[in-house]
Design a protein that fits this description.
With 173 residues, the chain is α+β, with helices and mostly antiparallel strands. It has a domain of 113 residues. Strands 1-2 form a two-stranded antiparallel sheet. A two-stranded antiparallel sheet has the order 3-4. A hairpin with a 4-residue loop joins strand 3 and strand 4. The longest helix is centred in the middle third of the chain and has 12 residues.
């Protein structure tokens, strides 16, 4: 945390280089770069969406504007520490990330994941484009046409089973 009360989100990259023979590492590089600086949610007693979703990016802005009280998650001020933490991680990452949360699998995703959901027209409803409609939606209701594929995978993970890792599986979204 900086002295001005903002949190520095940083990206750490670590490279380990080995000789061609696979011997011991001979070079280690780490680079830390600022990804974004945002006020710490709750730093001034504000636990709402404005503080939680502070910072740059379209998805943070959409999260600030969304009426979370109308979703199964409820108002952002009432979110658990775990949910607030993972939401901040997802939104702060430059890697595509998508989150299902809770028993109703409420959806949250970041700017890098947006292209996976399709481009939108000015009215936000072109073709099969899913952005921004996916934000805050219930997973099962939103992904009806592929639920027979992803539903069992999600149920396995949510039921405490092993993670799933399908290879070469086409699931058109």
């Amino acid at each position: 945390m900086r002295k001005d009360g903002t949190v520095l989100w940083a990206e750490l990259r670590v490279s380990l280089v080995r000789t061609p023979e696979g011997g011991d590492p001979f070079y280690f590089v780490s680079v830390v770069e600022e990804a974004a600086a945002a006020p710490l949610a709750g730093a001034a007693g504000d636990l709402g969406a404005a503080a939680l979703f502070a910072g740059p990016g379209e998805m943070r802005a959409r999260c600030r504007a969304l009426d979370w009280a109308a979703t199964p998650l409820g108002p952002a001020a009432g979110w658990s520490h775990s949910l607030r933490t993972i939401a901040a991680v997802v939104l702060g990452s430059r890697q595509p990330m998508f989150l299902f949360w809770g028993p109703e699998l409420v959806q949250l995703y970041n700017d890098a994941y947006r292209p996976s959901l399709g481009a939108t027209s000015a009215d936000g409803m072109a073709g099969h484009d899913r952005h921004p409609r996916a934000l805050g939606a219930r997973g099962r209701e939103f992904w009806t046409e592929i639920w027979d594929v992803i539903g069992p995978q999600i149920a396995q993970v949510m039921g405490g089973g092993e993670a799933t890792w399908p290879e070469d599986q086409l699931v058109p979204i």
